[in-house]
Design brief:
4 strands, about 50 residues, alpha+beta
């Protein structure tokens, strides 16, 4: 989820628009463990922390 027109930065390297956020929230609401992790060495950030 890189920068493109209409997206806002939610972490150092991750950009989302409202549809991205809604889609990920839908997954999380249905039992999927959704998190952001830039590289394997980084700490996982739960979706709730970035949106």
């Amino acid at each position: 989820m890189h920068f493109s027109k209409g997206k806002v930065q939610v972490t150092k390297y991750t950009y989302m628009d409202d549809q991205d956020k809604a889609d990920l929230q839908y997954c999380a609401d249905h039992g999927v463990d959704v998190y952001v992790q830039e590289v394997p060495e980084d700490k996982k950030q739960p979706l709730e922390e970035v949106i």
